[in-house]
Write a structure and sequence with these properties.
single chain, about 300 residues, 7-stranded mixed sheet, alpha/beta
Length: about 300
């Protein structure tokens, strides 16, 4: 009898332990799910907030605008891009460090009027941002460059106007000549640097990336080639449509005594931009962009010569 009672008491305790373990398991499971859901929501909100923060950089015709922002947790900002649709889309995805692990989320925050140039992802708590208008030859869009405070770029012997522009930005991670230890060195011309800038292309990671103008030069310096290629095709899509709009404007003002002589040139730019934006080839690694650039310079000179009848 004593043995039977002993067994009955042991079974009751065993049953209580099993039930308690099941309840504890479900409590932990539900708490984890709740934390993950809240973290995913937080990541999405952070992505939206970053997009909103970038808006003031796009509302001015000033040559360069700059800002910075800080987030409370270690954050990775993933820069994604799609070319589908009329103008493609800019996608931001956020991952933050929680319990010493990077969160995983499949929530994308999309924008159709932003062109962000950076590495595949930038990581840190403080980020520097500046923008510069891209003209081809008319203003196409404001290009936005994002870098982390954890990564310095050192520009060695840049042209005077580039040096002045970088110093005026006053970004602590953009240096001129006085390089910090571990900084990414950017040489203008030949030199022992991670990035070498020439007249219309750069050499980076043993790759050649073409550019036209200072805005695309910065884009090629700060971004991965895949990001640069995608955003470049989006910009060309926009150029294609704007060229037709200005061609229509030229036709409209022509009967009023403003003959611009740009109809055929703008149509040529439209066709060239469309061909490049729809190409399956690597347009940033070829000379095709520079070829179109010569047409852009011709259109720019003709428009400037029109004095009181400029199209833009």
């Amino acid at each position: 009898m004593r043995k039977r009672g002993y067994l009955q008491i042991s079974f009751a305790w065993l049953f209580a332990i099993i039930v308690g373990a099941v309840i504890l398991f479900f409590a932990i499971f539900l708490s984890t799910k709740l934390i993950n859901t809240e973290q995913t929501t937080l990541d999405a909100k952070t992505g939206k907030q970053i997009g909103i923060l970038l808006n003031p950089l796009e509302t001015s015709f000033e040559s360069v605008k700059t800002t910075s922002f800080t987030v409370p947790a270690e954050t990775r900002i993933y820069n994604k891009c799609k070319t589908e649709g009329n103008f493609g889309s800019q996608i931001i995805q956020i991952s933050q460090k929680s319990f010493n692990k990077w969160t995983e989320t499949d929530i994308d925050v999309s924008f159709y009027n932003k062109y962000i140039f950076s590495e595949e992802y930038v990581e840190g708590k403080k980020f520097y941002v500046f923008s510069k208008p891209f003209k081809f030859p008319f203003k196409v869009a404001d290009l936005i460059y994002i870098t982390s405070s954890l990564k310095d770029y050192c520009f060695i012997k840049p042209p005077e106007e580039i040096e002045e522009e970088i110093l005026n930005l006053n970004q602590k991670n953009l240096l001129v000549d006085n390089c910090s230890e571990g900084s990414v060195k950017v040489c203008f011309g030949f030199g022992d640097c991670e990035i070498n800038v020439y007249s219309d292309y750069i050499k980076k990671n043993e790759e050649t990336i073409s550019f036209e103008g200072d805005a695309l030069m910065y884009a090629a310096i700060f971004s991965d080639k895949e990001v640069y290629e995608c955003q470049l095709k989006r910009l060309l899509k926009r150029t294609e449509h704007l060229a037709l709009l200005y061609r229509n404007k030229a036709k409209f003002i022509s009967p009023r005594g403003c003959y611009s002589d740009l109809n055929s040139d703008l149509l040529g730019l439209n066709n060239a931009a469309k061909s490049l934006s729809e190409s399956d080839e690597d347009i940033s690694g070829s000379g095709d962009l520079n070829y179109v650039g010569s047409l852009v310079e011709l259109i720019k000179d003709k428009n400037e010569a029109n004095k009181g009848c400029k199209l833009w």
